[in-house]
Write a structure and sequence with these properties.
By secondary structure, the chain is mostly helical. It has two helices and no strands. It has helices spanning about 1-60, 70-140.
């Protein structure tokens, strides 16, 4: 009897690990880690873009009499702004694509959770049947 209960428990643990825990762990270890990394890159790109915008604003506000190369500074700042904006936009798209993938992963994890609950139902039903069988066996032997 105890051996059968133990076998049922081992099967439940195996099934729970393969159908729920391992897929969730893989998602957390790879997908979420990548998303967080890309979000940090996006934040850096945004800060870079803000800095370049500030640089352009400063260049445009220079006194033309004191700043002999004002037009050159503005041109360099505008070029940096275009590059920075392109980098930022590219990173926004990369991050957006990764975040959209979470929806697909969520549906997958919902199915995995459903499978886990089904495995629990089967496990507890098996345990119930085995203990019920033992109870009936004991009642029969004691009567």
């Amino acid at each position: 009897m105890e051996k059968r209960l133990g076998q049922s428990e081992l099967e439940f643990i195996r099934q729970a690990a393969s159908e729920f825990i391992i897929p969730l762990k893989n998602f957390l270890d790879t997908d979420i880690k990548n998303i967080l990394k890309e979000q940090k890159v996006l934040e850096t790109r945004r800060l870079d873009l803000d800095a370049v915008k500030g640089k352009l604003k400063k260049a445009k506000s220079l006194d033309p009499v004191k700043a002999k190369d004002k037009d050159e500074q503005i041109g360099r700042a505008e070029n940096e702004l275009r590059i920075s904006q392109t980098d930022f936009d590219r990173q926004v798209e990369t991050t957006k694509l990764l975040l959209e993938g979470i929806e697909k992963a969520q549906a997958h994890h919902e199915r995995c959770l459903k499978d886990l609950v089904e495995a629990q139902v089967q496990y507890y039903a098996q345990c119930y049947e085995q203990v019920k069988s033992l109870q009936e066996q004991l009642q029969h032997e004691l009567n």
